Amino acid sequence: WRGEVIGCPSGCSAIVDTGTSMLLGPSKEVAKIHSLINAKHNVIPCNARKALPDIVFTINNVDYPLPARAYIGKVRVRCWMPG
């Protein structure tokens, strides 16, 4: 969190699917992220998005930062993070 590894510390497999806008992952790892951003049942206050850090995926030693606006979706008046 904010610079430290919070998921897959020993590495893990991943699939990049450019045909979807959803981010999915192992439930244990996603639950850690939800906890760190104070998401309750995948929902977070929309005004909190501005304060959230990027989530950085490191693939083959290359960092791919993902800003909160890309990992927090908005549906009507609720903001949520898929899992």
Automatic annotation (TrEMBL):
Residue span, Peptidase A1 domain: 1-83
Compartments, as annotated in UniProt: Secreted, Extracellular space
Record's protein name: Peptidase A1 domain-containing protein
Organism: Sus scrofa (Pig)
Cleaved signal peptide residues: none
GO biological process, one term: proteolysis
Protein family (similarity comment): Belongs to the peptidase A1 family.
GO CC, any one term: extracellular region
One term of GO molecular function: aspartic-type endopeptidase activity
